[in-house]
Amino acid sequence: MRSSITSSPISPLLRRSFLHPRYLCHEFTIPDKSVISESPVSENASPSLATKSLDEFTSESNSAEKPTSEVDPNRNLCSLSTDLTQAHVINTLLSHKNDPYSALKYFKWAERMRGFIRGVDSFSVLLHILMGSQETHGSAQSLLSLYVSGDSGPSANVFVDHLFDCAKRFEFEPDSRIFNYLLNSYIRANRIRDAVHCFNKMVEHDILPWVPFMNILLTALIRRNMSREALDLHHKMVLRGVFGDRVTVPVLMRACLKKEREEEAEKYFREATVRGIELDAAAYSFLIQAFCKKPNCKVASELLKEMRDMSWVPSEGTFTSVVTACVKQGNMVEALKVKDQMVSCGKPLNVVVLTSLMKGYCVQGYLSSALNLLYKMNEYGVSPNKITYAVLIEWFSKNGDMEKAFELYNRMKITNIQPDAYVMNWLLHGLLKFQKFEDASKLFNEAVECGVANTFLYNTLLNSLCNEGKVNEACALWDNMISKDVVPNVVSYSSMILCHCRKGALDMAHNLFTEMLERSVKPDVFTYSILIDGCFKKGDVKRAFNVYEQMMAVNIAPTDYTYNTIINGLCRVGRASEARDELKKYVKKGFIPVCLTYNSIINGFTKKGDTNSALEVYREMCEGGVSPNVVTYTSLIEGFLKSKNMALALKMRNEMKDKGIKLDVTAYGALIDGFCKGRDIVTAYELFSELLEVGSSPNTTIYTSMICGFRTLGNMEAALRLHKRMLDEGIPCDLITYTALVDGLLKEGKLHIASDLYLEMLSKGIVPDIVTYTALIKGLCNKGQLGAARKVLEDMDGKGVAPNVLIYNVLIAGHSKEGNLQEAFRLHDEMLDRGLVPDDTTYDILLNRKAKHLYHSLADWSGKENRRMNYRMDKEKGDQVGSLEYPFMGPRERSNKHLNGISEPKE
């Protein structure tokens, strides 16, 4: 291919210093044609010299330099034998422009002469002369190959410029072949960068590289992961109307696939088809790979069939790609079909295909099929690798079959495949998920010993400990991590900060945050959000907003999670109105609130009893196109029930039904509890029955609400029936359930049944609390069982439960009612000894008129007034309590006992 030479001037010839001393160029000026002298080569030169082969000439030139006498026949070839200049050599070469053999012989002779240094221009002139004859093209190619394979010479850019410039100066018709020979020489010498420079220079001078050489260069670039450069070179050719041939297309497609540009690969295929290029199997294979990477297994399978219809046998890699794509898209039927085609075409199944099929089975829940495929691998002559075991271990761990997961793990080690952090991590995940902390600890220690415990693995265990609230264990693991030189990342720090925030250790969390900044670990938005949430949980709103402002200052954009954290935090601390205002600001910044956002604000208002504001937010929510869910309605229902607005609560429940939102157990529980507390046990029982009809199971809380409702109305028979139903259905009774039953039975005087239930509660390991003990003592005292009540008090002491003023009031009232004033006052003194402060009720019981006749030795009214005055005076003097002396204390002297809070005697 020839190209015309543009008339634009070329920049002055560049100077080049060669590494080899022989090729050091001196500065020179190429002579004008007017000063070029007659050729020093004699026209009568020996024909034998002019017709020597290149090999002979090369051998001659590489031999030791001969004495002058031995080259006597050639003396006429040169006017100066010892000082040849570039101008002389170029002059002589040009004089034999039409005699390439003589020019080549002279150039070789000149190179052997002392004082002559090969120049780029003289060499360029020689190459142009050699290209003048078809017979010397081979000599030009050989010279270029030797020249390029050496360690000296100018850069490709300089050389191409010189070749081009010499053609202009000395009126050679530029032959694109010499430039393409040079390009090919660079490629064959593995000088790819120089080849690229040569390619670019050729295009710059409108000398187009030949398509075969272009294809070779593009392939070489792609093999060196220089796909971007390859595509750029081809684009330059396209701009000049050269698209390439059928070989170019798969080369370009391969480059696109390496850059993950599947659409562009497909585009090259389509364009070539439109241009009428008959593409081969390689192009189809790359197109199939492009669709497999999307993935689009349907089209990939169709193309695979098209290849087989054209009698092409797809490669093993092509079949593998299609199987993998089918598995990724969950099309196991097609994946197995392609696998069978692969076998029928004589292609062996490989570990990638079999591992992909195993993963497909696992994803669809057929773990036994995946395991069977593992056992059949030997039949196919394939050995499982680390990825095969990793896939199976991952899915058996996910499904909770830790026994099989560890069986595979041990089998993996037996076959000398070292488990990596990925395998260890899934095993660790499985153990932690099923609360097997001891086994998890052993596995983790094994990973540390094997040297595979990396930051990723540490984070898994660290996150689990933090979620379990095991702060001490998490801190110990953190110290171990640092001691092993495992560098914590942002996830590690975030987990520890979350751990401290959940425990309310906000200062520790902030210390860790400061440490990560000092270690140049950049916090992410999740880290900041954790801190903000921790501050709100501690009620430190100011600090929470300081953290938010700090996040904004370092240009970390808040996410929806951050905004929801702030809104929920404000509602949690009782500032729902402020949360509502913040929401409006965030919406202006592009935040799109979701149901969760509105639920937080609605719940915040209902907790404050502000149902009107809650309803306003509910309307805003609906008007904004956000559909309320069951949590929304449950919050509103709880608010209405709290404010005794039963009608609105039922209205919300009906609205839920109209919108097709099913009430969950929590919603039913809120309604049932509300109506039970409102003494509307009929509606509560209707809701309870409805809950059963929809197929839901009432939980402990709902049963307890119903039992409390029946107890309030004195219907203990119904309460006991519910209790029996709980036991029959295996629903556990909690402390509140038993307390309600015992209290109700004692009120009805059914001491025996109450005692049995109390013992049943104790047998289940449920420890009574102060409320339970109060109900017991109150019930026993009301029925005159003062001795039993006293034993309950003693039992409290034995269990370390301190009685309160209410319990003593009940006991004192019981003894006062029975006329046992001595024991009543002894109990009064006992409560003082315990540090309890009697209240008005205590003295109302001791000093009321109904009991006056039972303690006639008590001082008269004025005496009581005096004691009250003494008490008040003592209190004004700074004493914690006043002092009283009772004249009727009996055998035990009760002097200087301290009382507090004496109430006015009631008439």
Automatic annotation (TrEMBL):
CC terms in the record's Gene Ontology section: mitochondrion
Keyword Cell membrane assigned: no
Keyword terms, alphabetized: Repeat
Highest taxon in the source lineage: Eukaryota
Ranges of biased composition (kind: Polar residues): 38-51
PANTHER family noted in UniProt: OS04G0488500 PROTEIN, PENTATRICOPEPTIDE REPEAT-CONTAINING PROTEIN PET309, MITOCHONDRIAL
Similarity field: Belongs to the PPR family. P subfamily.
Protein name: Pentacotripeptide-repeat region of PRORP domain-containing protein
Organism for this UniProt entry: Morus notabilis
Lineage of origin: Eukaryota, Viridiplantae, Streptophyta, Embryophyta, Tracheophyta
